[in-house]
């Protein structure tokens, strides 16, 4: 390890790589109760500890499980830094929780909206599960045949999500932004996207077979029921258009000059374990990743007599050391502190974003 020249512990490398088009920020989680868990302190004990240390306690669910790795804060902050050196930046949330609005204190929707206080930073929040429903509603005018073809298509496992994500990417590709930052859902949606070309190929093959066998009969029935002619061809054309978009974007995702993934975690066993799984999955899919943000680190002062602080810091240092052993050779490891207040609003995000570019130095005792 002593012979390894450590990479700078910042995200400056992302700002310097002007060829990047797609930047993903995310964690890997198997569900709401794992992956992004910080700890399982009982609520009252955790609140008491937070009061003793003097920090705002993180978000919790009803079981007292502390959740959140700072993924959204990191993606927002990175987008802010990119806006300083890129012509235009689009920040997209595909996380159903849609925390971008909370982070900036501004309501965002499925349409790109300029972020208050910036001239070239835009944000939008998209729910992949709802966009497919909108597509179905828009094609209701095709009548009986359109409905039957949709039912046949959506019966193929995964095709609804594939078409939904294709709609999103088709929309995004039509926009002229120099770089796009994704605040991804911690459920593997982004990784599954890479298998969608195969899913759509399967859907197209099955629909083609069914269409050749039953197309004339369905068209005749559709005409009798008042449906429009040519709806079958329209359906195939839509699927083919989506397949082409996904294939093109998929190629760009596998190009390290175009795409990179920033992993965000905290210094605990489960989060580090899931981060390693994420790195392996990204490697399998040939997606570049060489930055890991370790968030919410404690840097207690020597004069602080908080026992919980000392114990927790020792635990964090243990897993931080393991992270360095795993990733020092090929990764930039960015260390961020647990702050005494929430990072909300453009001004606080701007301040936080500086720590992504300049290594954090804890104040002296």
TrEMBL record:
Taxonomic superkingdom: Eukaryota
InterPro entries: ArsA/GET3_ATPase-like, ATPase_ArsA/GET3, ATPase_ArsA/GET3_euk, P-loop_NTPase
Active site, per annotation: 95
ArsA/GET3 Anion-transporting ATPase-like domain location: 68-357
SUPFAM superfamilies: P-loop containing nucleoside triphosphate hydrolases
Cellular compartments annotated: Cytoplasm; Endoplasmic reticulum
Record-linked Pfam families: ArsA_ATPase
One Gene Ontology term, aspect cellular component: GET complex
Positions of Zn(2+) binding: 306, 309
GO terms, molecular function: ATP binding; ATP hydrolysis activity; metal ion binding
Assigned keywords, A-Z: ATP-binding, Cytoplasm, Endoplasmic reticulum, Hydrolase, Metal-binding, Nucleotide-binding, Transport, Zinc
UniProt record, GO biological process: tail-anchored membrane protein insertion into ER membrane
Role according to the record: ATPase required for the post-translational delivery of tail-anchored (TA) proteins to the endoplasmic reticulum. Recognizes and selectively binds the transmembrane domain of TA proteins in the cytosol. This complex then targets to the endoplasmic reticulum by membrane-bound receptors, where the tail-anchored protein is released for insertion. This process is regulated by ATP binding and hydrolysis. ATP binding drives the homodimer towards the closed dimer state, facilitating recognition of newly synthesized TA membrane proteins. ATP hydrolysis is required for insertion.
Homology family: Belongs to the arsA ATPase family.
HAMAP family: Asna1_Get3
Quaternary structure and partners: Homodimer.
Name the UniProt record assigns to this protein: ATPase GET3
Organism this protein belongs to: Mycena sanguinolenta
């Amino acid at each position: 390890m002593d012979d390894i020249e450590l990479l700078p512990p910042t995200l400056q490398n992302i700002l310097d790589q002007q060829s990047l088009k797609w930047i993903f920020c995310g964690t890997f989680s198997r569900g709401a109760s794992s992956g992004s868990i910080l700890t399982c302190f009982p609520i009252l004990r955790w609140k008491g500890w937070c009061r003793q240390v003097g920090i705002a306690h993180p978000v919790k669910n009803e079981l007292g499980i502390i959740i959140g790795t700072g993924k959204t804060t990191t993606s927002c902050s990175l987008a802010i830094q990119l806006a300083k050196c890129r012509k235009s930046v689009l920040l997209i949330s595909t996380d159903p929780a849609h925390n971008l609005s909370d982070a900036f204190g501004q309501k965002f929707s499925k349409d790109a909206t300029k972020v208050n206080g910036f001239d070239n930073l835009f944000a939008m929040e998209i729910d992949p599960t709802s966009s497919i429903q909108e597509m179905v509603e828009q094609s209701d005018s095709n009548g009986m045949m359109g409905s039957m073809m949709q039912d046949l298509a959506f019966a193929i496992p995964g095709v609804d999500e594939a078409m939904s994500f294709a709609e999103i990417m088709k929309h995004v590709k039509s926009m002229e932004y120099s770089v796009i930052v994704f605040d991804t859902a911690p459920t593997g949606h982004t990784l599954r996207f890479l298998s969608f070309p195969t899913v759509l190929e399967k859907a197209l093959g099955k629909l083609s077979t069914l269409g050749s066998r039953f197309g004339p009969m369905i068209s005749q029935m559709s005409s009798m029921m008042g449906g429009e002619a040519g709806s079958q061809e329209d359906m195939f054309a839509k699927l083919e258009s989506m397949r082409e978009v996904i294939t093109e974007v998929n190629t760009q995702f596998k190009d390290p000059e175009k795409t990179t993934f920033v992993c965000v975690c905290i210094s605990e066993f489960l989060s580090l374990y899931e981060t390693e799984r994420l790195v392996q999955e990204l490697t399998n899919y040939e997606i570049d990743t060489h930055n890991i943000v370790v968030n919410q680190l404690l840097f207690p002062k020597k004069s602080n007599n908080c026992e919980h602080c000392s114990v927790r810091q020792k635990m964090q240092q243990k897993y931080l050391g393991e992270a360095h052993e795993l990733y020092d050779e090929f990764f930039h490891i960015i260390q961020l502190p647990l702050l005494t207040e929430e990072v909300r609003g453009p001004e606080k995000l701007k301040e936080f974003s500086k720590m992504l570019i300049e290594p954090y130095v804890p104040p002296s005792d």
